[in-house]
């Protein structure tokens, strides 16, 4: 496999499988790495991921493996694992990733405990000097895997690297726009998951479309305040990785975060609402609210979600508290 064109994808969930299909569709041989050797062998043999993407064939240009040595000497590596496992996976694969090109982080979250963004986690764990980029935007795995039109954002602090990686991974229906605003893209991806849970709660509680529209607008204002404080640019949040992603995930049960919130709103406990499925926003909520509080950034919606997810407040009490907030100028 040529290092000039080969692409690694680390993570065999729905999003990892979808991005592997997209990269292969853009003309690259792809190594799809799974931690579980049995799952990797089944995926390689059956050419389908029935647990995460049933009915979607694996592109013939993808080779599934559990051998970390096969990740070495690639053009780029897409890291597509949950945010809370990024550090552990990078530590496990540190040696082969040293020659596997830039690492593109595809998790949307903030690490619990350290309250670190994914780029900071990568900087602490990867070999010094390893280029890091972040991919985020409005995208459902099933759409991308099936080759439906999708546009996302890729960010790297080096604008030339961001442009090169975007060109490398873009295909006929999977389009990447590039920016050097890494922090803005990370904040948009992590924050919208928390706010999508809030929108799901509104839907599950039957509070109506008017309430959901108002919540989206006020929640987005929160996200903008947070981004400005933590170094993200307003124009980034207005783009695909901010507003675009929030609009997608704040209105569809296809979003795990929206569906999780919807079940909370209907009366399920946080454990019941999770149903054994990952909702990144449930882990990110406390970190987002904590970072905001430490800097004096008002984020009542994010704080409300954190309280509900932690079991520290009930849905009705939180809704009543939000409705009782003082009236103010809309742009304040």
TrEMBL record:
Pathway: Membrane lipid metabolism; glycerophospholipid metabolism. NADPH binds at residues 15, 35, 52, 108, 141, 256, 278, 280. It is found in: Cytoplasm. Its EC number is 1.1.1.94. SUPFAM superfamilies: 6-phosphogluconate dehydrogenase C-terminal domain-like, NAD(P)-binding Rossmann-fold domains. Residues 181-319 form the Glycerol-3-phosphate dehydrogenase NAD-dependent C-terminal domain. It is an enzyme of class 1 (oxidoreductase). It holds the Pfam family NAD_Gly3P_dh_C. InterPro entries: 6-PGluconate_DH-like_C_sf, 6PGD_dom2, G3P_DH_NAD-dep, G3P_DH_NAD-dep_C, G3P_DH_NAD-dep_N, NAD(P)-bd_dom_sf. Keywords: Cytoplasm, Lipid biosynthesis, Lipid metabolism, NAD, NADP, Nucleotide-binding, Oxidoreductase, Phospholipid biosynthesis, Phospholipid metabolism. Catalyzes the reduction of the glycolytic intermediate dihydroxyacetone phosphate (DHAP) to sn-glycerol 3-phosphate (G3P), the key precursor for phospholipid synthesis. This is Glycerol-3-phosphate dehydrogenase [NAD(P)+]. The lineage of its organism: Bacteria, Pseudomonadati, Pseudomonadota, Alphaproteobacteria, Hyphomicrobiales. The gene is gpsA.
